[in-house]
Amino acid sequence: MDDVIIGLEVHVQLNRLSSKLFCGCSTDYHNDPPNSHTCPVCLGLPGSLPVINRKAVEFSIRVGLALNCRIEQQTMFYRKNYYYPDLPKGFQISQYDFPLATGGHIMIKGEDGERNIRITRAHMEEDPGRLVHAGTIDRAKYTMVDYNRCGMPLLEVVTEPDLRSPKEARAFLDKLRTILEYLDVFDGSLEGSMRVDSNISLAGGDRAEVKNISSFKGVEKALSYEITRQRNLRRRNIRVVQETRHFDELRNVTVSIRSKEEAHDYRYFPEMDLVPIRVADWVPNVQASLPELPDARRDRFREQYGISDDHAKSLTSEIKVADFYEQVASRTDPRLAAVWIADVLKGELNYRSLGIDRFSPDHMVEIVSMLASQEITEDGAVILLRTLLDRKIPSLVDTEKPGATKAGGQLSVRVCDLVGSLGLARAGDQAVRAAVRDAVAECASAVSDYRSGNERAINFVVGVVMKKTRGRASPAEAHRMVQEEIEKGS
Ligand SMILES: [Zn+2]
After folding, report:
1. How many angstroms is it from 275 CA to the middle of ligand 1?
2. What's the rounded Cα separation, in Å, for the pair 169 and 437?
3. CA 39 to ligand 1 centroid distance, Å
4. How much distance in Å is there from the Cα of 25 to the middle of ligand 1?
5. What is the largest CA-CA distance in the chain?
6. How far is the CA of 358 from the centre of ligand 1 (A)?
7. DSSP string spanning 225-249?
8. Domains of the chain, residue spans
9. Which of 21, 177, 307, 390 could form a disulfide linkage to 153, CB 3.0–4.6 angstroms apart?
10. What does the pLDDT look like over 259-307, one tens digit per residue?
11. In this model, does residue 429 exceed pLDDT 90?
12. The pTM is what?
């Protein structure tokens, strides 16, 4: 994909703020009726005046610094003039010259290895309201408008055209989201919290902009569709028109909505109701309060806990997972914990679309400790994880046996009790040895196949051992013991 050129404009809602950008309205509107979080300022009524939310500026500086940007000495706001039903003022307060942050970069996992993606700028602006169409955008009989979102604090992060594939665009968004969550300025689980405009072209061609995609998967799909569309045009010697397109998530296609507008179309001019802000003076304090960021935490995990870089990366890609890991690692074998959380637990959670908060660190500590002391097998540990996640704990739930207590409405179970009730305790050496002897005696033909050079025939015998011990033996150990037993007899 060497000829693909992608740049992103990411609108991030700073939704960890409690009030909007220029008024005191609450940002916590997601479960409330439409138009219940509004006031004359965010509705743009005549005579109302905006007042900047100090904390929003601070949050934005925090993001700027974390993206390795330069923070302007002084920043100011502009009016971006356009009319749209969700923008009752007829203009959006945004930034133009002197944006808050410029010239940054972050590292992402690219198609071949780590890649540095340059950030052009990050600027503050207010979110418009939201249009709710009765049906799809092109067939709706009517459209309703909800102004709850009007005036929500947004940070627009603009990249240089450094991305080379839809996958890299996705990797960039994942990394940006991780950083924002570490900074505690953003909650990505809220609807519409991150919306992406992407510019895409093939080398030498004009670019198309696909606007307002609200899911990362959508961005990847829209870009893949655009690459195919532009390649097909090129093959037929047709020029790509510079335009704005809409991604239809249901049909997985992009459709033209209008020709691309230029900056002068918006007639930017300074917002005289807001004074310029000298942000340079704020930087030292904000810098000092920055938390440990994902890349730094990944390096520390590798060194402090002696785990692989892949595990360290996987464990730090979500702040909640990283915190969970540290809680577990401080109380049991950190390397084994890394393997079981990164490779097994995360997979089981993904499969069920659950977050890590659905699993108790205490349970993980118990499971890892029992693995370390060989009280349970790896198969047994997987069964324990699944049982705890699916809450299929029949005997304990039904009959309040010792070990099952209802604490605060939540069922609390001790893993060691579960091991007992599910019969997962690892089989003792004696029992495994007896099973191996019986299996070797029963599987005469597999044993003779193995002796005559078919190495794989041994797996059949190991399978019989696992059956006889009801999965409570370690397969690797059973394999070793079967081999010994066969060699003894030959
Ligand atoms: Zn308001």
Report:
1. 19
2. 57
3. 4
4. 4
5. 98
6. 36
7. HHHHHHHHHHHTT-PPP-EEEEEET
8. 4-286, 294-422, 429-489
9. 21
10. 766 767 888 999 999 999 999 999 999 999 999 999 999 999 999 999 9
11. no
12. 0.84
